[in-house]
């Protein structure tokens, strides 16, 4: 077994499975941020009234990307499942990488560079920022390890429905 | 409905009073024509999907609801206004586009009368007009024009301008949904990448305008009275527009998913043939 595992088809399957769920992870984390932090906790808002117009514009693009990413990822995943071409471990790795990647992006670019909003107002921000970005890095590491092991461990390339 | 309500705040009636009956009759006529054609198409060998008929009915109902909405509120409520615009410019057009009225027309027309329709479909101006970029400029560009210029104030005082703006929202909304994901024939429609990019820009532009109106209610739209309700209306625009655009993204990817089933080469079958068992070594 296994001489053909690293075939071109295997690589394509592995890469596409990882990419599809990474796209879902990005959209999912963005949606969680909007729903949990904007709406349920209301720590930070839709718009905090001090944001410059340029930042609002980039925020709009980001928001559009999130919406499209969520739908695109699920359709890519559905396409892979339909063709029995899903690499499950690569898919889990992709999801973790997407989730962590977006959270880190949000924590660094949105909060710090663009200054769209902070995590919470009227508190010492440091522990919040550390928790936010620390979680992001942990999830990213978990994703990278899963991706690494999905390549190395034998026999991970089983299709979703065995035939 | 209470038609005898006097307009509040001593202002001129914000929603111009007019008779909705002719438009409602026109809508009813369109629905009757569509269902009659659908019934005929159903008897033909290729049939006609009942979901398309349901979609057209939904579109007509949404338009009628949008027309009747302001009649129930004589006082100017920007939220009602926003809901009306969302229905006319985004939800109703999407439902109508998904009903594929042009395909139905072509299927039920006798061959001799199909030719002029085909000639229009082949014409250069239609290709330019139906390009996603021009549809975006007309649709979202029109939205910016109305909200950031005195056009908005004009709609409050001139019923004709108001009606024209609504007509524009409907036509541009239809054009945009059709150019992105319409099931009707669209010659020379650009590929998935172009349409996806245009859709991304449209979503971004819509959410940006909503936040801009929310952030600067004293500046935009020019001449409009600023109330707390106007802020709420901007939020409705943001979330309501989002949902409509989400539906359009799903429609676009559904087209992609269906076409991929027909055109893409198999990923696994070929590999499985080249290396027997290579893909399924897990027992």
Number of helices of chain A: 4
Q: Over all CA atoms, what is the radius of gyration of chain B?
A: 22 Å
Mean pLDDT over the full residue set of chain B = 81
Kindly state the mean pLDDT of chain A as a whole number? 76
For the largest interface, the chains and their residue counts are: A-B, 45 and 42 residues
Query: Considering DSSP H and I runs of 4 or more, what fraction of the residues of chain A is helical?
Result: over 70%
Element layout with pairings:
The complex is a heterodimer of chains A (163) and B (283).
Chain A: H1 8-40, H2 53-82, H3 88-113, H4 125-152
Helix pairs in contact in A: 1-2, 1-3, 3-4
Chain B: H1 21-43, H2 50-68, H3 78-98, H4 101-108, H5 111-122, H6 124-129, H7 132-148, H8 151-157, H9 159-181, H10 192-215, H11 228-263, H12 268-274
Question: Please, could you describe this protein's structure?
Answer:
The complex is a heterodimer of chains A (163) and B (283). Chain A has 163 residues and is mostly helical. In chain A, α3 (88-113) runs antiparallel to α4. Chain A is 72% helix and 0% strand. Mean pLDDT of chain A is 76; it is low at 154-163. By secondary structure, chain B is mainly alpha-helical. Chain B has one domain (14-109, 120-264). In chain B, α2 packs antiparallel against α3 (78-98), α7 (132-148) runs parallel beside α10 (192-215) and α10 packs antiparallel against α11 (228-263). Chain B starts with 20 loop residues before the first helix and ends in a 9-residue tail after the last helix. The chains are: A mainly alpha (163), B mainly alpha (283).
